[in-house]
Backbone:
């Protein structure tokens, strides 16, 4: 814990992909309106790790509990890590794993932690970001997937494995910027203003990292979060 900021709790999510008629699709689930975190948002299946549970095991368990899908012996590839900004009252240190949907498996939500499930291409999900109430980690990951989806599922798995070999903890920082919509932006660790203007915990990251390419901040526009360049 840093100062009065709450310590984040370990969590894990699975970015599950399949080949669809319009290209690679990703599974998103809707959190109930009564959820204590990101209520009503569409997210990747996942949740908090249990005491003594490894993060890969937590990811697989949450996927199975929320969607009924089992990956069996197929190991998911760890590729991203996001920590909730320290200004938030409830925080998670979330690891994201990527995997393909095994043959014969289909999503059946549990009705508790997940009330609906949809398979969407990353591009369609981003186009519907406001209606889906996508939060910044989902927007960034979907943007990465959309940029690489043309290579197919196998290429995305290879990319995720490469990212996992160079771990990067993405801890966004809030910043009050006069030129941002509403005067507020969320800065990512490779933004040039991250260290100087960002509020809260977090370490700057080199722009050369495979997950630190492209726009480096989020702004709120048209009811949804959008990546923006400096």
Residues:
């Amino acid at each position: 814990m840093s100062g009065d900021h709450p310590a984040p709790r370990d969590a894990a999510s699975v970015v599950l992909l399949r080949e669809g008629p319009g290209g690679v699709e990703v599974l998103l689930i809707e959190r109930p309106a009564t959820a204590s975190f990101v209520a009503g948002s569409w997210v990747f299946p996942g949740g908090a790790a249990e005491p003594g549970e490894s993060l890969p095991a937590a990811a697989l368990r949450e996927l199975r509990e929320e969607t009924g899908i089992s990956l069996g012996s197929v190991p998911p590839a760890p590729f991203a890590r996001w920590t909730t900004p320290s200004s938030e009252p409830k925080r998670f240190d979330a690891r994201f794993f990527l995997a393909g949907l095994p043959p014969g498996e289909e999503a059946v939500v549990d009705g508790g932690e997940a009330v609906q499930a949809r398979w969407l291409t990353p591009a369609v999900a981003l186009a519907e970001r406001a209606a889906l109430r996508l939060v910044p980690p989902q927007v960034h990951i979907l943007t990465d997937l959309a940029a690489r989806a043309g290579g197919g599922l196998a290429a995305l798995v290879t990319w995720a494995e490469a990212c996992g070999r160079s771990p990067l903890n993405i801890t966004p920082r809030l910043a009050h910027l006069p030129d941002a919509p509403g005067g507020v932006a969320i800065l990512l660790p490779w933004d040039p203003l991250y260290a100087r203007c960002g509020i809260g915990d977090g370490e700057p990251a080199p722009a050369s990292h495979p997950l630190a390419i492209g726009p480096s901040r989020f702004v709120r526009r048209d009811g949804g979060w959008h990546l923006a360049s400096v």
Summary: The mean pLDDT is 90. The longest helix spans residues 55-67. DSSP finds six helices and twelve strands in the chain.
